[in-house]
Amino acid sequence: MPNQIQNNRQPGLLRSVDWLTILIYVVLMGLGWLSVCGASYDFGQPLDFFDFSTRAGMQVVWIGSSLVIALILLSIDDRFMEWLSYFIYLLFIIVLIATPFFARDIKGSLSWIKIGAFSIQPAEFAKFATALCVAKVMSSNGFNVGRWRDFVIAAAVIVVPMLLIVLQKETGSALVYLSFFLMFYREGMPGCLLFAAVSAVVYFVVGVRFAEVPLSGVPTAHLGPFLVLLLIQAFTAFLLWRYTERRSVFRGVLAGGVGTTLVAYLFSRYVIPFDIVWVQLSACIIIILTLLYLALRDRLMSYLYVALFALGSLGVHYSADYAMNHIFEDHQRKRIQVLLGLLDDPQGKGYNVNQAKIAIGSGGLRGKGFLNGTQTKLKYVPEQDTDFIFCTVGEEEGFLGCAVVLFLFLALILRLIHLSERQPFAFGRIYGYCVLSIFLFHVFINVGMVLGLTPVIGIPLPFFSYGGSSLWGFTILLFIFLRIDAARNRMQR
Amino acid sequence: MATNYELEKRKYVLGGVAIAIVLVYLLRLFSLQMLSEDFKRNADSNAFLKRIQYPARGAISDRHGKLLVYNQPAYDIMVVMNEQVGVDTLDLCESLSITPEWYARRMEEIKDRRRNPGYSAYTQQLFMAQLSTEEFSRFREKLFRFSGFYVQKRSIRQYQYPYAAHILGDVGEVGPEDVKRDDYYQGGDYIGKLGVERSYETQLRGVKGSEILLRDARGRIKGRYKDGEFDQAPVPGKNLTLGIDLDLQALGERLMSGKLGSIVAIEPKTGEVLCMVSNPTYDPRLMVGRQRGKNFNILGRDPHKPLLNRAIMGQYPPGSTFKTSQALTFLQEGVITPATSYPCSHGFHFGHLTVGCHGHGSPLPLVPAIATSCNGYFCWGLYHMLGNRQKYPTVQDAMTRWKDFMVSMGFGYALGIDLPGEKRGMIPNAAFYDKAYRGSWNGLTIISISIGQGEVNLTPLQIANLGATIANRGYFITPHVVKAIEGEPLDTLYTKPRYTMTDRRWYEVVAEGMRAAVTGGTCRLANNSQYEVCGKTGTAQNPHGQDHSVFMGFAPKDDPQIAICVYVENGGWGATFGVPIGALMMEQYINGTLSPASEARASELENRHLYKPFVYAEPDSKQ
């Protein structure tokens, strides 16, 4: 009997595994390898990419071993990982706790453990462990992410490894865990929560980024508070449009807030200059009071919630302002400013981004051709084969190459959405969303950083950046899901 | 769940977010790669030439603002391998005064990736380093003929005085491991190798800048890219002010000439190191420019090890200076009171064990015991402490307590001075003796540690720091040679007091004892009518020949300005070298000058030599 089952399963697996995803995976990894070759190749060197003393050669080893890992993951029972998920999670929590004690200090980060000749970054593997665990927790009977208690439990599963990674001074890797909130959203977390969280980040970034920039034409006001208050009014109006019935209130807020601001701006610019932030602030408070009045009069909770959102927004903005100026120490403030591109730090993160832009810009439509990029090779771009690998694509393969790579990533993510949605059980679906959220976050931050659009957070580009830990980590993440997906029909029967 | 179908629609939101991100990024790529005319025009791979601009390294001055280390221009000859074709090698060699063989060998070295990991045929590689202005001027006239060769203006370190080599350190070319460890460096860069130059490398070096130049197809420079929008000006290094008093340092080096050993002086209130002499020493100017490698090798061959900074790397038995720390421990632990007297009949006798002592009255209370440096007193003290089974259940517990006291005074671990290579000394613990004596030991077995012999080892810095701690009556600030960094606060390690486990009142008693040693004990030579000196001698036995002569002291007794340790290897009695040298140093620092009588004594001490200096001219292969 056992033999028969196994015999039945193998051809079933080959038929039911999602070959399209595997194809995208292999193509991305191949293109990634070419980029590492380009980035680590130096002019005048003999052309031998299989020389294992070079990074290109080592990447062959990592790719080969990743394929082996993928095969192993496909060949084990699909429920194996689900059974083991708590155990795997606990194991990695212990490893993460232990890591700083054994880690060697590499540029301030305590996240690398040396085993023999290789260095391993446990944080890269903790992602799949966390994804498994959170999927298991959330797929248990009666779990409802909309309920506070359940939400807190699921969030704790994510926050614990995140904090441990922060302790290893790998803030970038820790931030990746925020991507799990996308999965929460799919699983029923109220959309307005996600909206509120994103809004808070936007207020903080915009407020700090433009705090010192004068508003054009109005020397008395700063762009930062002006933009944030404008955004608060706009977001409040959006929420009214989305969650309440009466259009008149929405229009009133839009006109009263944005309209007043515009009038005040013109008045201050052309008649008498004054700090229009006070006008905006008054408008916001009037909006909030009106909404509270409406909530009481009509007994509609929606108005109350929107009013609370607006009030909270003001709170976030002013407490961020206060924290930046009074609570944070000098070096903490500096770090935040560097992150937002306000300051060039001594290590030259701003310099990296400038160099990256030059390198990409010099690629043009078709690029300079494989191994012909100069900017990425002559040590102009630091971290050229890890975090800034996308530069090499931009320089050597040009706009067309970049577009191909971005579309491949988009195809992978959309395909993973499709695969997740066809899962018969919540566990598979939730895990799938974790996987695609992590990929999306990595691509969003990494490519955005190289293009100078997002803060410089050192996280790798999946399948492209040089390194064994990240490649193995992403492979494990993906292939556990593909194995679960391959079993979807059998499970239905 | 009924809401499942409603939630399923959220996949469109997430998919939409992914599509939106990719579209925004494509737009951005389009504007960077297709629309920007500059980027397109410069897509030619040779369009950019990045030239590194080196910042001026920070200058170093002493505590009174005397400039010690500054920069002088020098010129590096750089070569770009794939541009240097058809150069007249002979002409080049002649104008640089090098042989064609040297030229060929150097070119091979540059191309060797194992020795030059950052090599690229397209970038500038260091060919010859640090030519002086005169050497360079001949080459400059012909530079236009040597395509592929460039000149990089650099600055090299200049030292104003021949003193303080161990503190100042030097700079040299980065090694391959530096380049691997830190992205900042490229082959040919300079990095601090020793002393302050090394420990404050990041502050001193500043930040390299870069300018991006445009070249035409023939490699001629056409101007700055985007008028320098992407250029980065170099940030000059920060200047350092040392706590060192140069006059004091100079006197110390003078007094130590012909002797092996060290002098460390500390300002007790701040922990600033006022002088740090280690003899034999060398002229820091030997370590500049292209002679550095050669001179470094010569100094390395010297059997007296002039490159060793004995003040922080020499680990010596502290001898009787250590007795002060014992008194402080016993007082705090209640083993003795200031009134406790112990007998001493030419030493400590217990069964067959005898620790000898010299002649003085007996029995003695603590203050005279410190003043006369009585061995018996402190042996009894340690014996009673380690044997006290009421207070400590086992001898191991007593030993652990003792060790904790020592560690709190800064012994047994590196103090954390801002110089590389500090040694930790040696304070034995219970586990150490359990292993050495297989668990069978007691106070008597290890009695010699109470008088600073046996397994106990301290660095001269730790002894000086003990002096500073007594001067402060119970705390010290981690000693540091850098007093101030331009535009940056000192590490809090160097501003926060570290308290020992002993109360202030017991420190007063020990200071009294050290005062008595100067007025009527072993340190009478250090007595000075102008201010009250406190001191303690040490005569440290050692297996390598004559005893070491040690002095630890501070002055004035109230409101101390200087704490000092003098350690002269094989100098005999503490009073022979340690005390007079210490007295002169304190006088120099407190009065700012020496009296004529003291000056005469200084000259006499300067000329008393204890070893034969190594003669560099005839390298001795047997040594």
Structural class of chain B: alpha+beta
Largest Cβ-defined interface: A-B, 58 and 51 residues
SSE ordering of chain A = HHHHEEHHHHHEEHHHHHHHHHH
Count of runs of 4 or more consecutive helical residues of chain B: 22
Portion of residues in beta strands of chain B equals 15-25%
* Spatial gap, N to C terminus of chain B: 88 Å
CATH class of the largest domain in chain B: Alpha Beta
Q: What is the end-to-end distance of chain A? A: 19 Å
Number of strands of chain A: 4
Query: What is the overall pLDDT average of chain B?
Result: 86
Strand-residue proportion of chain A: under 5%
Low-confidence parts of chain B lasting 5 or more residues at pLDDT below 50? Answer: 40-45, 617-623
Can you count the beta strands of chain B? 20
CATH fold category name of the largest domain in chain B: Beta-lactamase
**Overall mean pLDDT of chain A:** 82
Q: Mind telling me the C-alpha Rg of chain A?
A: 25 Å
Structural domain tally of chain A: 2
CATH superfamily of the largest domain in chain B: DD-peptidase/beta-lactamase superfamily
Rounded Rg of chain B? 32 Å
Explained architecture:
The complex is a heterodimer of chains A (493) and B (623). By secondary structure, chain A is mainly alpha-helical. In chain A, α4 (80-102) packs parallel to α6 (148-167), α8 packs across α17 and α9 packs antiparallel against α10. Chain A is globular. The two termini of chain A are 19 Å apart. Chain A has helices spanning 2-16, 19-40, 55-75, 80-102, 122-139, 148-167, 171-175, 180-186, 191-209, 223-243, 247-270, 277-298, 301-327, 330-339, 349-361, 389-421, 426-450, 468-486, 488-492, and strands at residues 113-115, 118-120, 214-215, 218-222. With 623 residues, chain B is α+β, with helices and mostly antiparallel strands. Chain B has two domains: 48-242, Penicillin-binding protein 2a (Domain 2) (Alpha-Beta Complex); 246-606, Beta-lactamase (3-Layer(aba) Sandwich). Chain B has 22 helices and 20 strands. In chain B, strands 2, 3, 4, 5, 10 and 16 form a six-stranded mixed beta sheet that branches. A five-stranded antiparallel beta sheet of chain B has the order 12-11-20-19-18, with helices on both faces. Chain B has a three-stranded antiparallel beta sheet with strand order 1-8-9, with no helix packed on it. Mean pLDDT of chain B is 86; it is low at 40-45 and 617-623. Chains A and B meet through α8, α15, α16 and α17 of A and α2 and α3 of B.
